[in-house]
Amino acid sequence: MVDQLRVHQEEIAHIRDELDEQAEAYEFLDEAVESVSKGIDNGTIEWRLASEDIRPVCESNTTTED
Q1: Longest distance between any two alpha carbons in the chain, whole Å
Q2: Which of 25, 45, 52, 58 is deepest in the core (most CB within 10 A)?
Q3: DSSP reduced 3-state for 17
Q4: How far is CA 31 from each of CA 4, 21, 61, 66, rounded to the nearest angstrom?
Q5: SS3 (DSSP) at 7
Q6: Per-residue pLDDT tens digits for 1-53
Q7: What is the pTM of this model?
Q8: Which residues form a coiled coil (predicted)?
Q9: How far apart are CA 12 and CA 8, in angstroms?
């Protein structure tokens, strides 16, 4: 019985670790989306589909702000 409890506790700890990692990844994605949205709203990032942009990457006018 005690061994089963210990195994379940280890499984729960493992699941918590995985959920923490996923939550952290979603937080980073959230921050990235917010940053890009602000850039589009401020006009510092121009949004277009790759199929609409025929310029080479080195000629595209992109800037980043922190």
Answers
A1: 67
A2: 45
A3: helix
A4: 41, 16, 23, 12
A5: helix
A6: 889 999 999 999 999 999 999 999 999 999 999 998 888 888 888 777 767 66
A7: 0.53
A8: 5-32
A9: 6
Tell which residue, 10, 11, 64, 59, has the closest CA to residue 39.
Answer: 64
Tokens matching residue 42: 């401020």
DSSP codes of every residue in 28-56: HHHHHHHHHHHHHHHTSS----GGG--S-
Look at residues 63, 61, 27 and name the one whose alpha carbon lies nearest to residue 42: 63
Residue type, 14: H
- Are 45 and 62 in contact by the 8 Å Cβ rule? The answer is yes
Whats the size of the chain, residue-wise? 66
